[in-house]
Write a structure and sequence with these properties.
- With 775 residues, this protein is α/β, with parallel strands linked by helices.
- It has 23 helices and 24 strands.
- The radius of gyration is 35 Å and the shape is globular.
C-alpha cells in the first residue's frame, strides 16, 4: 500500500476500535439483561437487539480485515439466530460461553493487526458444540484480577469522512455526526490547562485591585492628617502675608512663604491624584468583575466538555460482578442508580480502581453463599447497590451497599490488635464507628484465609489513600446480618479548588478546604498532656495537638518571633482527619480562604512527602499545597518519636527466615525455591506431604508452602495434620495449587490454611507480600 493508503487504513482501524468497544459494551449489557429477563417478550426483545449489534460488529470487522473478530462475531450471531428460531434455549452454560466469546473479542481487539490467534477457532468450536447440543467446554469462571487503571474514554481518533462511509453504519442509538464530533482527549486536556491559566490572570487582577484599594486607603490617611494640619498652615500663611511689608534682606520670611506655597500646591495636587486614583480603582473593580465572570464561565464550559456520565465507568461493572460472584459460587445482582450524574473524566479514571476493590470486597467478604443466605432467611441472590448523586458545593456522593453479613467489629478489633495497629487501652476506648474505620488501616483484615482476591489487609488502606488524594472522603457503616455501606464524597472537578492560606514559621502554605473539618482558636490553658503528648478536647474526644511547623520539619524561628510565647495566650488550630485519626495542627496565622489553581511539581518531583503540588498567588508568590493524608502520617511518626509506641510490631533481630516447600512438580518446586532464595529466605524443598511432615519433625521452619494434589499425602491432609499437632499448630501454611473452585477454597479454610493461591493467577510479588505478612 502507498503511504496515503496506509494512513487512511490506520484512521479506519482507529475508528473501528472505537466502534468495536462501544459494540462490546452494548452486547455485554444486552447479555446481562437477557440473563436476568424473566418473561418471553423481554427475552425476545433483547435477543433481537444483541443479534443486530453482533451483526453490525461483524460487518465492521470485515471492513478492516479483522478476520478473527469477524469469525467470533459470526459464531455469536449464529447462537442468536438459533435463539430467534427457538432451536436453542437459554441456559447458564450458554451465557458462560457467550461471555467467554466476548472476552475473546476484547483480547483480539488489542492484538496487532494481522497477527493470528488461536482464540477464534477455540470459541468457534465451543459454540459449534453448543449448537450441536453438546456441553460447551467453556472454561469455568475465575475471579478476574484487579485491572490496572484504564482511560475511561477510548484512544483518541479523528474520523475521516471516507472512513465513516467505509465502516459499518453506526446503530441508530448513537448520535449522528452532525450532532457530535470526536475529539482527542489530549486536545481537551490541553485546552483546559490553557483555560485554567486564565485563573492566574483573575487572581492577579484581584491582587491589583487590593493593592489599589490599599493605596487609596493610604491617601485617605494622608487626607485626614492634612485636614488636621491645614488650619495651622493657613494661620501661618496669613501671618506671613501681614508681615510681608516688613521683610528685610536676609530675613527667613521669603523661604517660609515659598514653603507655604508648596504645601498649598501639594494639597491641590494630592486631591487631583486621589480623585484620579479613585476613578481608576472603580474602573479596575468593574474590569475585575467582568474578567472574573468571563474566566469563570470559560472554565466552567471547558470543564463541562471534560465531564462524563458515571455510566461510562459503571457500565463495565455488571459483567465483572457476575464473573466474580460465579467464581466464588455466589449469586449476586448489581443495581446502579444515578449513572447520568457527570464527573470530571480525570476523576473517573482515578476512582475506577477503588470502586472495583470495594465491589470485590462486597462479594468476597460481604455477600454470603446461597446456602448460608437460606439459613439466615435471606433471598439466595445477594444485592449490591451503587447509587451516585449530585450534592451541593461541587460534590458527588457514591454509596456502595450490600445486604451481606456485615462487619464483625470484634473480629476487626482483634485483627488490629494482632497487627499492633492499636493498643489494648485504645481498643477498649473505641466506639463502634471508630472500630469500623479500622478496616482502612494497613494490614488489618478479618478474612480467615489469604487468597488471590483478599486477605492481605492492604486494599482498603489503599482505597482511602486514593480517595483522599483526589480530594475526597470515604466512610463506612455496617450492621450484623444486614450489610455494609460505603460512602464516598468526591469533587466534581480537579485542578481548581478552594484552599486555606496559612503561615507556619514564617512560611506560607495552602491546605485544601475540603480537608479542614474546622478552624479553632484555643487558649493555652486548655491544652492537656496525655501520654507525654499535648492534646485538646473537641466534642468530648481527646485529639492530639501538633505544630504544623514540626510536622513539616521547618527550622525554628528566633525566640523573639516565637508565636507560642506566653504573651500570646491563644493558638490558631486547624482540625483535620477522619473519625479514627483526627489531628489538630497549630499554625502561626490563618490568612484567608481563596480559589487555588494546582500546579504539579514536574516529573522529577512526582512524590514529595507532605506536598501535593504548588500554586501561584496573585502577588506572584509560589506557595506549596499540602497533602493532608501525608500530614496525618507524618504527625503519627512525630508522636511515635516523642515516646509513643510505634504502630507496627517489628520482629526482633535480622535472623534469616526458613521456609519449607512441599511440591511434587520439579518445575514448580524449582521456581518457588529460586523465588524465595532470591528474596533472602532459607529454603528446603520436599516432594510430597509425607516428606514435608518428616522434615518438620527434624528442623524448625517459619512457614510452609504446599501444593494440594500430591502423592501419598495431599496438601489438605498435610495442613490438617499440622494443625492437629500442638508443636506445629502455629506454623503459617500457604497452599499454592491449580484447584480454584469455591469448594476447594473452603476445604483449604477448613483444613486450617493461612493463605490460598491459585497457580492460574500466580504472581511472585503477591506471594512474597503474603509471606512477609505471615512471618
Amino acid at each position: 500500500m502507498s503511504a496515503e493508503e496506509t494512513e487512511f487504513f490506520e484512521k479506519l482501524l482507529a475508528t473501528f476500535n472505537i466502534e468495536a468497544n462501544e459494540s462490546l459494551k452494548s452486547i455485554t449489557a444486552g447479555l446481562l439483561e437477557l440473563e436476568n429477563a424473566a418473561d418471553p417478550d423481554t427475552q425476545t426483545r433483547w435477543v433481537e437487539r444483541v443479534f443486530r449489534e453482533a451483526h453490525s460488529l461483524k460487518g465492521a470487522a470485515r471492513a478492516v480485515n479483522k478476520l478473527d473478530v469477524e469469525t467470533v462475531c459470526q459464531s455469536i450471531e449464529s447462537v442468536f439466530s438459533a435463539l430467534k428460531q427457538r432451536s436453542l434455549t437459554l441456559s447458564p452454560a450458554l451465557f458462560d460461553t457467550l461471555h467467554h466469546a466476548l472476552d475473546a473479542v476484547e483480547t483480539l481487539l488489542t492484538q496487532p493487526h494481522g497477527e493470528s490467534s488461536a482464540l477464534a477457532p477455540q470459541v468457534m468450536q465451543q459454540i459449534e458444540r453448543l449448537l450441536a447440543g453438546k456441553s460447551a467446554p467453556a472454561p469455568p469462571p475465575t475471579a478476574p484480577p484487579l485491572p490496572p487503571p484504564e482511560p475511561v474514554l477510548p484512544p483518541p481518533a479523528e474520523p475521516d469522512p471516507a472512513t465513516e462511509k467505509s465502516a459499518s453504519p453506526l446503530p441508530a442509538t448513537r448520535p449522528l455526526l452532525g450532532e457530535t464530533v470526536r475529539i482527542s482527549t489530549a486536545k481537551l486536556d490541553n485546552l483546559l490547562l490553557q483555560a485554567e491559566e486564565f485563573l492566574s490572570v483573575k487572581l492577579s487582577t484581584n491582587q491589583h485591585v487590593a493593592d489599589l484599594r490599599e493605596i487609596v486607603g493610604m491617601l485617605d490617611v494622608w487626607q485626614r492628617e492634612w485636614s488636621k494640619a491645614a488650619p495651622e498652615v493657613q494661620r501661618v500663611q496669613r501671618q506671613t502675608e501681614q508681615n510681608g511689608a516688613q521683610r528685610r534682606r536676609g530675613d527667613s520670611q521669603p523661604s517660609l512663604a515659598r514653603l507655604l506655597d508648596f504645601l498649598n500646591w501639594n494639597r491641590a495636587h494630592m486631591e487631583v491624584l486621589t480623585d484620579r486614583l479613585q476613578t481608576l480603582t472603580k474602573s479596575v473593580e468593574q474590569e475585575e468583575h467582568s474578567v472574573g465572570g468571563m474566566i469563570d464561565n470559560l472554565l466552567e464550559d471547558v470543564k463541562k466538555s471534560l465531564m462524563l456520565p458515571f455510566s461510562a465507568l459503571l457500565d463495565t461493572f455488571p459483567k465483572m460482578v457476575r464473573d466474580l460472584s460465579r467464581a466464588q459460587g455466589k449469586n449476586v445482582a448489581l443495581s446502579i442508580k444515578g449513572g447520568e450524574v457527570e464527573l470530571d473524566r480525570r476523576i473517573l479514571e482515578e476512582v475506577k480502581a477503588p470502586l472495583i476493590h470495594i465491589l470485590r470486597n462486597c462479594i468476597d467478604h460481604g455477600i454470603e453463599t446461597p446456602d448460608i443466605r437460606r439459613k439466615a432467611n435471606k433471598p439466595e441472590q445477594g444485592q449490591i447497590i451503587v447509587t451516585v448523586s449530585q450534592l451541593d458545593a461541587g460534590k458527588v456522593e457514591i454509596i456502595i451497599s450490600d445486604d451481606g453479613a456485615g462487619i464483625n467489629l470484634e473480629k476487626l478489633k482483634a485483627a488490629a490488635l494482632q497487627q499492633g495497629c492499636i493498643t489494648v487501652s485504645e481498643a477498649a476506648a473505641m466506639n463502634p464507628q471508630e472500630t469500623m474505620h479500622l478496616i482502612f488501616r494497613s494490614a488489618v483484615s478479618t478474612s480467615a484465609i489469604i487468597t488471590d482476591m483478599s486477605g492481605r489487609g492492604l486494599g482498603m488502606a489503599i482505597v482511602r489513600e486514593k480517595i483522599e488524594q483526589l480530594g475526597g472522603k470515604i466512610n463506612v457503616a455496617s450492621a450484623q446480618q444486614l450489610g455494609t455501606s460505603f460512602q464516598i464524597l468526591l469533587p466534581v472537578a480537579v485542578a481548581t479548588f478552594r484552599g486555606v492560606l496559612v503561615q507556619a514559621n514564617q512560611s506560607t502554605f495552602i491546605i485544601p478546604t475540603s480537608s479542614v473539618e474546622r478552624v479553632l482558636r484555643i487558649n493555652k490553658v486548655d491544652i492537656a498532656t496525655v501520654q507525654n503528648r499535648p492534646t485538646i478536647e473537641i466534642d468530648g474526644r481527646i485529639v492530639p495537638l501538633t505544630p504544623l511547623a514540626e510536622v513539616l520539619e521547618l527550622p525554628r524561628p528566633p525566640a523573639d518571633d516565637d508565636r507560642s510565647s506566653p504573651e500570646q495566650p491563644y493558638l490558631q488550630v486547624l482540625l483535620m482527619g477522619t473519625i479514627d485519626r483526627r489531628r489538630a495542627f497549630v499554625v502561626d496565622r490563618i490568612i484567608n480562604e481563596q480559589e487555588v489553581l494546582v500546579k504539579n511539581l514536574g516529573k522529577k518531583l512526582t512524590r514529595v512527602r507532605n506536598v501535593s503540588g504548588a500554586t501561584v498567588l496573585g502577588s506572584g508568590q509560589v506557595v506549596p499545597i499540602l497533602r493532608v493524608s501525608d500530614l496525618l502520617k507524618s504527625a503519627e511518626r512525630l508522636l511515635a518519636g516523642n515516646g509513643r509506641p510505634t504502630q507496627t510490631v517489628k520482629k526482633a533481630g535480622n535472623i534469616q527466615k526458613s521456609i519449607l516447600i512441599a511440591e511434587d512438580s520439579i518445575t514448580s518446586r524449582t521456581l518457588l525455591k529460586n523465588i524465595l532464595e532470591s528474596a533472602g529466605y532459607r529454603v528446603r524443598a520436599t516432594v510430597d506431604g509425607v516428606d514435608a511432615l518428616t522434615a518438620l519433625k527434624t528442623e524448625p521452619f517459619d512457614l510452609l508452602i504446599s501444593d494440594v494434589e500430591m502423592p501419598r499425602m495431599n496438601g489438605f491432609e498435610l495442613t490438617g495434620k499440622i494443625r492437629a499437632d500442638n508443636k506445629f499448630s502455629g506454623l503459617p501454611v500457604v497452599l499454592v495449587t491449580s484447584l480454584g473452585s469455591p469448594e476447594d477454597r473452603e476445604r483449604g479454610i477448613d483444613a486450617g490454611a493461612d493463605a490460598y493461591i491459585t497457580k492460574s493467577s500466580f504472581d511472585q510479588t503477591n506471594l512474597l507480600a503474603i509471606i512477609k505478612r505471615l512471618v
